[in-house]
Amino acid sequence: MTRKVFCKLYKEELEGLERPPYPGKKGEEIFEQISKQAWQTWQEQQTRLINERHLNMFNPEDRRYITEQMDRFFNGETVDQAEGFVPKAND
């Protein structure tokens, strides 16, 4: 049976993640409030930011930046975009 959550980003009940993506409180919060679809969309955004800005996830400052961007993303706030990124057009 598929686990459902009321997604904080999309404001509707959607399929949830199979397990918390992070350890601790932050991971549990994401697990309970973020859908699989929203998490996948964030992963794509995160990858673009890491690549474009040459972030090093071993650097605490870069991890803080990504966590801040993630929180803003899931709260529906404006997040930084990769320079020159053009989203796919919906056909």
In short:
The protein is mainly alpha-helical. The protein has three helices and two strands.
Relevant terms:
3 helices, 91 residues, 7% strand, two-stranded antiparallel sheet, YggX-like
Task: Tell me about this structure.
The longest helix is centred in the middle third of the chain and has 18 residues, at 36-53. This protein has a two-stranded antiparallel ribbon with strand order 1-2. The chain has one domain (4-74): YggX-like. It has helices at residues 24-33, 36-53, 60-74, and strands at residues 4-6, 13-15. With 91 residues, it is mainly α. The chain is built from three helices and two strands; from the N terminus they run E-E-H-H-H.
| Oligomeric status | single chain
| CATH class categorisation | Mainly Alpha
| Strand order within the widest beta sheet | 1-2
Number of helices: 3
Shape label? globular
What about the largest sheet?
A: 2 strands, antiparallel
Proportion of strand residues: 5-15%
CATH topology: YggX-like
Q: Which stretches are low in confidence, meaning pLDDT under 50 for 5 or more residues running?
A: none
Which range best describes the helical content: under 10%, 10-25%, 25-40%, 40-55%, 55-70% or over 70%?
40-55%
| Annotated CATH architecture | Orthogonal Bundle
